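Sequence only, no structure available. Ideas?
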Amino acid sequence: MTDKIEIKQHQLVEDPIIITKVAVQVIQLVLNQGCKLNYQLFQSDGKLVKNGIMDMTGDDYAAWSNDDDYVIILC
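Reply:
I predicted one. Tokens follow.
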């Protein structure tokens, strides 16, 4: 007698989500030390995909400079 095992198929990789808009608000800023940011990631239809609060300190804060693309990479 052989036992049968039922295997359910699952998709392991979801379709990619394309982010077309990023909103970043500085909540708290400590000069030359770091900041706390609120971020929101949106699709082209305006649907909110992800939001959160992040702390940026140390080397991450020093590398931020004037390039907001750096914040997007950290989100």
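The radius of gyration is 20 Å.
Hope that gets you unstuck.
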